[in-house]
Each structure stands twice: as structure tokens, then as C-alpha cells.
Amino acid sequence: MSPENRRYVLRRIVLLAPLLLGLTIIVFLIIHLAPGDPALAFVSEQGLDPQIVAQVRKNLGLDQPLPVQYAIWLSHVVRLDFGTAYTFNQTPVIELIAQRLPATLVLQSLALVASLAIAIPVGIVSAKRQYSAIDNVATAGAFLGLALPNFWIALMLQLLLAVGLGWLPASTPGVDETGPARLRYLILPVTILALPTLAVFTRFVRSSMLEVIKQDYVTTARAKGLSDPAVTYRHALKNALIPIFTVVGTQLARLLGGSVIVEYIFAWPGLGALAYESILRRDYPVVLALTVLTGAFILIVNVIVDVAYTFADPRLSFR
Length: 319
Description:
73% helix; mainly alpha; MetI-like fold; 0% strand; 319 residues
């Protein structure tokens, strides 16, 4: 890595601190200024007494000014202590997240791998057969994948494949199943999560390949008598996929955002379903922890992507 790139990466790492601080401030204000009172979750409708509600708010520290609440909360967050959940059996937030994290990682990893495994060959074929029937179908499919909302596709496939035809489970995580039998429960949610990223990756691979196959070194490789697969995969694809690092990093936010609705629809016990339930219950500690950790993860991934990009393409220089 060149000295300029090292200085650039160092600046990005240093800037993480103020960015994360700004993220915590914005998230804290949005959560606390939203309508509703989490103290009501501790009081039954029959025993709704203003004095009891006030006491609950005092016990939770919600009666203090927002700056004081933020300072207390931030002092714990820097120690990775996100407090205790209000409504999830008083479970520590970090423990609750640790319990749900593996389920989300399974969905996200499979969706990312599946979208890349399909998008790369489809993008290559579309680029090599530009404006052909295959290219037109892939382009139309990519636009549909970007245009149609995840929740609508999820509900339609759920009605068709699960309710109508009975081929796949409708909305259960399959916690009682083991081995290959449990894979049936992954097909629908992974498919729904992979569709938008598949569309993005396909279009990106196609455009990148179109640019690369017109370069002089590809023409030279063909002139040397190399076979078409050798030219495509050893020369063109190798360089066309270098910018994919950036696209994969940016699509992680889409995957995380889409998992909230998808996990809730299919009753998958991951972080997305946890976030949805926490918002409905006004569980401040859980919502804050999930939002801050997700934002921090995306910021860190962007820095890692920039570093990986410099190693993948030594010609690149950041200033």
C-alpha cells in the first residue's frame, strides 16, 4: 500500500469516532422524540394510574432531561453495555442480540453468496451477448428486482408456494428441524433477500465486463490465440470484478434493512424480527443498540472495503 493510501485509510479510521458519535446523537433523539411512552408497557390497562406511570418512568430514568439521559446512556455504550431490555424478560440487550445474531448471519450470508453466484455468470453472458434475448431478459429481471418491494414479493411467494401449493413452509424458522430438512425453511427468506442485490450485482457485472472486454489487453489476448473461456475468465473477469468490492459493501446496508420485514414475515428469529418487535414495544435500549451497532458495522465495512480495494488494484491512489 502506498503512503498516500495509508494516510487515506488512517483518516477514514480517525473519522469513524465523530461519525459514530453523530450517529448516536441522531438515533437517540429520534427514538426519544417519537410519540409513545415505553413506561406504559409495564402498566396494565386496568391499573393505568398516572402515579404508577410516573414511578415507572423514574425507575427507567425517563424523567430526566434528554441530555442527561444521553450522557448516562453513552457512558455505558462506550463500555459496550447497552443496558437491559424493557420488555424481553429483562434480558441484557447485548445477550439478547447475541442470541438472535446467528440466525440473521445465516440469512445474510446465504443471500449474499446466492446473489453473487447467480449475478456473475448472468452478467458475463449479458455483456458478451449485448442486446440479445438473454441480455434483454436479464435487464428486465434486474429492473423488476429493484422495483418490486421485498414485502410484496415475500407475501406473494408465501401465498403461492406455501399456502397454495404447499411446497415450502410458510412462516416458521424450523427450530425443531435439523440437517437438510431445515434448508426448506431458508429457501423463501433467502430468495427474497437476494433478489434486490442480485439485480444490482447483475447490472454492475454486465457494465463492468462491457468496459473491460473493449480494452486493448483483452484484444491482445485474443490475438495470441487464447480460447474464449481463458480470455473471459483469466483476463477480463479478473479485472472486471475488482470494483465489486465497493458494490458488495454498499449492498450490505440493503440486506440489513430488508431483513427487518422479511424476518418478521417468515417468523425468522433474527435481529430484523427483534428490531421490529422492539419498535412496536417502544423498547428504547434494544432499538438504540441495534441501530447503533448496525450503523457502526456499515461504517467499518466501508473502511474495510476501501482497504481491500487498494490491495485488489494497486494502481488506485487515494489522496
